[in-house]
């Protein structure tokens, strides 16, 4: 018996891959730091958002002797076949005011009336 949400002749979900692995390689001036592990994402459409979030995290939290300025970096994202699917400068993490955007933060909005 099949439910309304179940299709006939649908292959079983086990053994099927949910996403594709993308490699977030970092270009800093003339050096390329290769991502050997990669990240599994649902689709190529998710790559840009993931790159933005990852770049924001690196800018805010990572420090490396070999990278002096994260804004001189870009992601060169490749798929499993080694094809470049996105080149994204870290500067794209800036919004129109020049501050980095972070999902889920209030960006300095005062929520308490007596804090003024």
Outline of this structure?
The protein is about 15% helix and about 25% strand.
Walk me through this protein's architecture.
With 116 residues, the protein is of the alpha+beta class. The chain has a domain at 20-96. The protein is 13% helix and 23% strand. The protein has 1 helix and 5 strands. Strands 1, 2, 3, 4 and 5 form a 5-stranded antiparallel β-sheet that branches. Strand 1 and strand 2 form a beta hairpin. The longest helix has 15 residues, at 47-61. The protein is globular.
Features:
116 residues, five-stranded antiparallel β-sheet, single chain, disordered C terminus, alpha+beta, disordered N terminus, globular
Question: How are the SSEs ordered, and which strands pair?
Answer:
Blueprint: E1 20-28, E2 31-33, E3 39-41, H1 47-61, E4 73-78, E5 84-89
Order of helices and strands: EEEHEE
Which overall shape is indicated by the principal axes computed on the Cα atoms?
Answer: globular
Number of helices: 1
Count of beta strands = 5
- Give the end-to-end Cα distance, rounded to a whole number of Å: 64 Å
Strand content: 15-25%
Secondary-structure-based class equals alpha+beta
Low-confidence stretches: 1-13, 96-116
Q: Provide the residue-averaged pLDDT.
A: 77
Rounded to an integer in angstroms, the radius of gyration calculated over CA atoms is: 20 Å
Q: Please estimate the helix content.
A: 10-25%
Sheet with the most strands, sense and barrel status? 5 strands, antiparallel
């Amino acid at each position: 018996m099949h439910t309304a949400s179940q299709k006939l002749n649908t292959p079983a979900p086990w053994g099927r891959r949910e996403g594709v692995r993308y490699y977030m390689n970092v270009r800093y001036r003339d050096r390329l730091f290769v991502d050997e592990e990669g990240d599994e994402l649902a689709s190529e459409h998710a790559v840009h958002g993931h790159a933005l979030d990852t770049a924001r995290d690196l800018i805010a939290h990572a420090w490396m002797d070999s990278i002096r300025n994260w804004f001189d970096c870009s992601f060169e994202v490749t798929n499993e076949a080694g094809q470049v699917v996105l080149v994204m400068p870290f500067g794209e993490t800036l919004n129109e005011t020049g501050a980095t955007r972070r999902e889920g933060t209030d960006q300095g909005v005062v929520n308490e009336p007596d804090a003024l």
